[in-house]
Amino acid sequence: MNRTFIVKKDEGSFFMIPLCKISAYNKTANLSLAEFYMQVGVYMKNIHIKTIIEKINGKIQPQLSDFIIENVTPYWRNIRQNTLFFDCFKYPIDWSIMGRTCVIVTEEERIVEKALSKGIPVIKVDNIRTAYWEFVQYYRQLFTIPVIGVTGTCGKTTTKDMITHILAKQYKVLSTYKSNNADEMNLPYLLGINDETEAAVLEMGVTYPGDLKENCKYFKPQMGVITNIGVYHLQGCRTVENYIKAKAEIIEGVNPSGTLIVNGDDETIQNLDLQKFKGKLIFFGTGEKNHYRAINISYVKDGMDFTLIYENNMYHFFVPGYGNHNVYNAMAAVAAAHEAGIAIKEAGKRLEDFRHLPEHLQFKEGANGVTIIDDTWNCAPPSVIAALEVLKSTATFKRTVAVIGEMPQLLDLSDNEYKKIGQKAASLKIDTLVTVGDKAKIIGKCAVEKGMNQSRVIACHNAEQLYKTLVPYLNETSVILFKITNRTMKNKLIKQCIKKCCKRNK
User: What range(s) does the Mur ligase C-terminal domain occupy (predicted)?
Assistant: First the structure.
C-alpha cells in the first residue's frame, strides 16, 4: 500500500492529502478541496494556544483557556477553523473572513485594536518575523523523523519521487507534490508532518540566492542529495556563479552529522567546497571513484538495465524510463534509501514498478501512428541533451524529429547553451530539427554549422507554423520529441498544436 502524502492546490490554499484518498477526492468533485481536506482528516499536530504563546514570547488578548491550533499560515486567505495567522507580510486584511475561530499574531498596535474590536483574539509580539521563525523551529523539533532534501538543476523531481516510492512501501512519507517547491510551500509541507509521519522527502528548488538556506531552515534535513548542477534559473540568480553558490547552500544546510549524496561525475559539483560538510559524504556516478557506481548501462524495453556496484558487491537493476540520466536518478535514490535503512537489493526491487510523472519523456501513440515523446515538463539545457539522446536511442530506424523551444530563464547565457544543444542534435544525426521562438533559432543555426542539412532545420514562430511543419511527420515512420518550456506551453495555441499531434485516430 502506498502511504505517501501529496499536496493539491485549490483557490490559493494548499492541503496535505494521503495518496490513498485521491481516488475518493476525484469522485467528490462537487466538494471544495478545503471541505474534502476536512473530511479525510489530515491535519498538523494540534497545539494548545498556551504552548504557542510561550514559544513565541507573546501576550494574548483576551485570555483563551482551551483554544487548540489546527492550522498555521502567514496568508489571511488561507484562514480556516482554529487557525494561527502570522501577520508577517502586513498585507491589507479582509476582516470579513476573519472570525473568532482564528488567532492573529502581530507586532502592530493598530492590528491589535482592530482585532479586539472585531472580537478576534490577538497575540502581540515584539517582532513578527522572529515570532514566526520561533514557531517554525518549535514545530520542526517536535519530530525526529528522517528528512531528505533533494536539489539539482535537473532530475530532482524524479529523484525525489523515486526515494519516496522506495520508502513509501514501508513508511508513511510526506513528499513534495510534483515539483511544487516554491518557498511559500515550505510551511504547508512542514505542517503536513504530524505524529503519524515516519519520513519526509522534500524537493528544494532555487529561484533566488538564499532559497535553499531557507528550505533547510524549515526542514533541517539529515540527508541532502544534489543530482547535478547545470545552467538554469538565471532570472533570479542573475549569474552562473550566483546560481552555483545558491545550489551549494545545501552543503551547510544539511545537519553536520548527517549525509550528503552528490553526483560524483558532475564537474561543477566536483569544484564545490565539499570539505565544508563535516558529515558523511557519498558519491554516485559511473566513474571508478564513486561509492555507488553504475556499469553495463543499456536500453531495454520500457527502461534501462544496469549493474550497480557498491562496496565490491554487484546488483542488477532495471529502472522504468529511458536515458542514462534516469540511471543517475535511480542511483541517487537508492543511495538515499540505503542510507535511510533500506537494503540495496530491496530498493532496486521496489524501483521496478516506479511510475514517472506525465510529460517526463512520456511515450505516446499520436496521430496516424506517430510516436510522440512528451518531455514538456521542463526545459533546462541538460534535460534537452538527455532527451535528444533518448530520441536517438529509441527511434530504431524511424525518422527522428526534435521540437525544441526557447529557454528564457537562461538570460544572456542562452546563446552559448543553445549552441551546445544544436551541436548535440547534429552529432546525434537527428533527422529534423524544429525550433520554436526567435531565440531558439540559434540552436538550428549551430546544428547547420556542425553539418546538419539546412533543409532539415526549421524555425517556427507560432502554433500554425509548427503544426504545418509537423503534418508530414504524423505517421508511423516518425518519432517526434517535444521539448518545450512550461512558459511556452502556457501558450494555448502551442498546447493545442501538440495535443493535435498526440491525438490518436479513432
Answer: 362-483
